[in-house]
Each structure stands twice: as C-alpha cells, then as structure tokens.
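#onboarding

Welcome to the new folks! Below is a worked example of what a typical request in this channel looks like: someone posts a single protein sequence, and someone else replies with the predicted structure as tokens. Don't worry about understanding the tokens yet, we'll cover that in week two.

Example request:
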Amino acid sequence: MKLINITKSLILEASAKDVLVNELKLSDKAADFFVERCGKLAIIMANKLIENISFLAIKNNQKVTTSEAIVLLNKDYRVFSENLVSIMDWIRVGLNGNLGSHKNDDYQTLVKESKKWHDELEVGSGIYNYEENEDNIVIDFRDKNGMGFYWVDLMTSRCTDEQKRMGHCASTRGDTLYSLREIIRINDKFTINKSHLTAAMEEKDDGFIILQLKGQKNSKPAEKYHQYIAKLLISPTVNIVGFGSEYDSASDFKLSDLNDDLFKLVMKNNEK
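Example response:
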C-alpha cells in the first residue's frame, strides 16, 4: 500500500477521519485518537508512525509490510499518546502550528526535537493558555502583566489535574489542596501554566495545618520556592497554625529547610 502523500493531508479535520479510515485503513478508534490529538496533522502523524514501525522492524532484522504496520498501529496506537502530545505542543506553540522545515523529519526526530524544545523552555508538564479560577487564588505574586507565581486553593481533597501535572497522587485525608503555580509568557500567543508545589491542608477551628508540602514526584521542595512557602506560612488570609504528617514525611518541607532570614520572618510573624 502506498502511503498518502503529505501534501494531501492539508484538508479539514472533519474529513481527516475519513481519510484515515478509508485510505489508511485505521480503525475508527485509532482514527479518532489521531484526530483528537493531532488535528489537521492527524494524517501526517499517522503516516510517520507507520513508517516508524516499519523502520524499527528493519532495524531489528524483521520485515513488516505497510499493511502489517497499520495492523500493529491499530493495536498499539495508545502507547504513542505522550510523545504525540509533546510533538503537537511543540508544533502548535514553538512552530506556530506549521511543521515548516520539519515536515520531512521522521517520527523519532520529531520526538527528539519536541523534547529538546520542552527542556529548553523548562515547561515540563505545564498547560498552555490555562485559565485559572481567580476566585480560588489565595496569595498572588504575579506582576502587572499577569505573569509569575501564585498559591491557589484547588477546592478538593483529590485533584486529577494536579496529579498529572505533578506526578504524585495529589490527594489528602485533609480538607483541600493548595498548589503553587506559575504563569510564564512564551510568545505573543501563548503562556504556560505550571504547578511547582502541592500542599495538603487540614482545616482546624483556628486555621490550617499543613499535612504535606511536596514538589513534583513527591520530592522535597527546592530552595528557590522557599520564599513562596514562607509567604504562605505568614499569610493572615490562610492562617497556618501548624504542621502534621501524612505520607513520606521525610520528603516534606520543614521549617528547618528555610535560610536564616526566612526562618526569622516566619518566627517573628508567629509571635504576633
């Protein structure tokens, strides 16, 4: 079977599924998968993955026809989800929606280029042009252009969005979760919203106890975030009254982690 020429993929998304199903012979579910994640580039990306499957087979001294590669893609298309998200974010944001000089790159090259772009921007698992619920922001450090850090009350004891962002369970036996987030300007069209810390909060009669305060993948919060933690600890709006424990307390933030100046600031405020 001859692969569809890339130039033929410049069609409306509405008809992309028809091409994927009727000409490339993808299943309905696989076609929906590519259209949902890749939009107008669905056909291009499906083609590149078919070529990639065939190439890997040859590299391993195996022979896989195009038809056989399509059968394999129909079976395992979901395993490519993370890399496709990375590629499409790079194309949409970094390349302004156009592959340009990269249109002839193979799938593995696109994966490498997209990851390189993400690493250089340090965007990690951020979300593009994310709109926060402003009513839930409890402490705001953003500048006049809306860029910078803030603490937000997620208003739930378990948050799947925070779980995906942070690589931890994002759940607590307490009452709610706070997230230290940051908005970064990438270009004229796009901003990135990142979560850096998650705090598990338990409400008491006189204020909140912090049960957990961790970084990504349950890591101990880095020193560069301590200034924002200190502001949380002394905020009269939040009113932190103590610390508790919940999971892997050794990786939690501790008051002793603060430098002398921030420690004195917190202790002085606590005396009031």
